[in-house]
């Protein structure tokens, strides 16, 4: 009887333990640099995402919601209608800043271990882009606000690290805006960002 008990205990000890099931939910902070398609200067890009890895396509398709923020600006000089003592137009400096908050929903296709230890991925989807343009000139400030729909495309690669993965990704954003201060332009652009994607 003791021998049977010892054999049963040994079999249980040798049996592989069940694998921990990875959660389909994940979140990630990210930081990067964005350059719009306009004459605005490049700017710091801050974002956070939450995603769900669906069972579709052998758990390769994820749905990701991202919220991001940036505020590029530019400075220059305007010639006003006033003349100085020499009869020349008075030049005044100006600053134009365009704040953008975007809420983006993307379908992301992942290729686990597609490049050795790296998991490359690509994605695209619609976005709601909220804009506020502010101009400071001639000792006065004027602002315009509005929002509109656009889209984004992205590609990146993730490296497993701890309970999640570090990643590097690139985006293209199309975010049309039509203000008096900006004209009809695309304030989207290209960006590169790094972050850490944590499995919940």
Overview in brief:
The protein has 200 residues and is mainly β. The chain contains 2 helices and 11 strands.
Plain-language structure description:
- With 200 residues, the chain is mainly β.
- The protein has one domain: Porin.
- It is 8% helix and 68% strand.
- It has 2 helices and 11 strands, in the order αββαβββββββββ.
- It has helices at residues 2-14, 56-59, and strands at residues 25-36, 43-53, 61-70, 73-83, 89-110, 119-137, 140-161, 164-174, 176-179, 183-186, 189-199.
- The strands form 2 sheets. An 8-stranded antiparallel beta barrel has the order 1-2-3-5-6-7-8-11. The chain has a two-stranded antiparallel ribbon with strand order 9-10.
Give a topology summary.
Blueprint: H1 2-14, E1 25-36, E2 43-53, H2 56-59, E3 61-70, E4 73-83, E5 89-110, E6 119-137, E7 140-161, E8 164-174, E9 176-179, E10 183-186, E11 189-199
Antiparallel strand pairs: 1-2, 1-11, 2-3, 3-5, 4-5, 5-6, 6-7, 7-8, 8-11, 9-10
Question: What brief labels describe this structure?
Answer:
Porin; two-stranded antiparallel sheet; 11 strands; 2 helices
């Amino acid at each position: 009887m003791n021998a049977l008990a010892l054999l049963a205990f040994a079999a249980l000890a040798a049996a592989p333990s069940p694998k921990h099931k990875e959660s389909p939910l994940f979140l990630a902070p990210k930081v990067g640099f964005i350059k719009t398609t306009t004459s605005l200067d490049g700017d710091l890009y801050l974002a956070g995402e939450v995603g769900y890895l669906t069972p579709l396509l052998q758990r390769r398709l994820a749905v990701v919601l991202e919220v991001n923020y940036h505020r590029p600006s530019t400075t220059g000089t305007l010639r006003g209608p006033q003349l100085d003592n020499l009869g020349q137009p008075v030049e005044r400096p100006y600053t134009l800043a365009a704040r953008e908050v975007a809420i983006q929903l993307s379908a992301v296709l992942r290729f686990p271990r597609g490049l050795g230890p790296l998991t490359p991925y690509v994605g695209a989807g619609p976005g709601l882009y909220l804009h506020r343009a502010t101009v400071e000139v001639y000792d006065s400030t004027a602002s315009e606000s509005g929002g509109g729909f656009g889209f984004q495309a992205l590609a990146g690669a993730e490296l497993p690290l701890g309970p999640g993965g570090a990643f590097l990704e690139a985006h293209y954003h199309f975010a049309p805006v039509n203000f008096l201060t900006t004209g009809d332009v695309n304030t989207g652009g290209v960006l590169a960002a790094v972050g850490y994607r944590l499995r919940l």
